């Protein structure tokens, strides 16, 4: 065959093949796998080192997060920094940190300490659609992707991108190629049962892994001709690991997902495509504390296939051009010209508007905006509060969408407290509350509480916030409670009690308050009260009945910055009040000062709680409301709960506790070992107060932070031969009065 003919033939072939080579697109496919998805970062590090440009990305669930950030211009190191900066335990709690909760919610925590909340909707019991609503995750994605706010077409991102979700209403696969990037990613990772479904574009979305966990097909649909596929899915459990209904159900879902993934992977061409399956051993999808291990596994998987990966490498000049394109768009925080709080999905949108009104006319501060949204969200009646930037003419504003809880608007809440001293003295306290929310758009609500057990109580209240930012409130209420208390001898031992009385108290009052921020509350309360004590058992020398009718006025200041109501590690709670009691014409006037103070600090796993309580009554000491109580674990240990009743009480204490379980795990039951040293005393007049009467006490305990609140098993001893074992639900903190 003539040589010139071969030359012409080769030239013709190159003419045909060069356009095809120019059209080759390297597409990155990132699968879902929860915490195991951190392996994607390790793969990206190797791709960058080997100068491999990416022309398109598809991702599902955690792959959608890593892929979406990379498509938006983040590099591998920046994505790793984001991942390391996330407190995943906090991310899986919708409420803001306790320090930033409204003071009203903090008081609720001390009253209920955990408990169970159920919704009341259309006359029936309703439950949330997920354990986590994803409030914090959505705010995080919004902040990270603000630079894409004005890029509705995902093909216009630095790298074209697609995320995959599932329409749970009909089971269809939904592919997002335009719209709101943060919402598209959030929809892709709504893991059923964990993250609640999210409604976007009129469809209820859950995790895309159900229908397409490794979206190879979508990568080809958007033009990918050479695929780098990373499968980080959790392997199926072995037969001996299938030990519960939950594990069986999870295995069924994993089996269906694996079948679809295997089918997709079977279409890969070994000549043009590459599959990476990082070996992460027994790492589970919820083990975010092992993210560094996953990153390293991704690196190893890519290094193992380094020869195959280098097929996709390009020269320095071509890669430099890719890096120039692969940059986040510059984002200068705009001046917020307007605030638009949408009314369609919330009955209390005006309340949210009050909380956020201060942002208008200032440069956008995302941290402050998220804090303000968290303060509104902490009210407890919202499923989500989201925001986005909106442009009108030449002005930029913030559009906010509050969404009421779908299982509301009314709620039932239950709590339980138990105590037993293993000596025949035990008690329980069952609390139930029905809360009617959204009574008006400014956040008015009605709370009605019933208590049964050691204390029988009824409380009905209407709460109405008002003011430019909702910082004021008025709360008229009715209150009734009754409980038994002993009248003891001078030695203070319960077994030596002379009698037992049943005290009942009724009040009609109105409280007016001011909450300048999430840690302070100032209030004044005016009320009309009736107290009565009837002797149930005991010597007839004591009165059969005592009763008082009086008016009261109380001033109160409360500061609460504790990070936890059960086992705090930082912060302070200070509760200071002075109450005037104005009796009938017999001149039974009195006043009561109360102080409760606790400060927490920590070093590593070690935590300390320093505290003091003072209750001091002046004037007529016959009024029953002038009496305070002592007794219980770390509240003059050795005495039983509220065993001591007097109108002059003082207590100081140091409590130490150390966490025994791993705090870094996403799922871990907090167990503590601790003890306390205390000194306290009680007197029946201010003139009788003498520090020589102080009683030394101490305790040792094991504490567990359960969903019903803190539980303690302990032993206490006080001078004078008072010993007591404790098994109790309830906080070491006290909410006075």
Q: For the CA atoms, what is the radius of gyration?
A: 32 Å
Please give the largest β-sheet. Answer: 16 strands, antiparallel, barrel
Shape: elongated
Which structural class should the secondary elements be placed in?
alpha+beta
Per DSSP E runs of 2 or more residues, the count of β-strands stands at: 33
Strand order of the largest sheet: 16-17-18-19-20-21-22-23-24-25-26-29-30-31-32-33
For the termini, the CA-CA separation is 106 Å
Estimate what percentage of residues fall within beta strands: 35-45%
Let me know the average pLDDT: 87
Uncertain runs are: 1-22, 490-495
Give the helix tally.
16
The share of residues in helices is: 10-25%
Summarize the structure.
22% of the residues lie in helices and 40% in strands. It contains 16 helices and 33 strands.
What does this structure look like?
The radius of gyration is 32 Å and the shape is elongated. It has a 16-stranded antiparallel β-barrel with strand order 16-17-18-19-20-21-22-23-24-25-26-29-30-31-32-33. Strands 1, 2, 6, 7, 9, 10, 11 and 12 form an 8-stranded mixed sheet that branches. A 3-stranded mixed sheet has the order 13-15-14. A hairpin with a 7-residue loop joins strand 24 and strand 25. It contains 16 helices and 33 strands. The chain has 737 residues and is of the alpha+beta class.
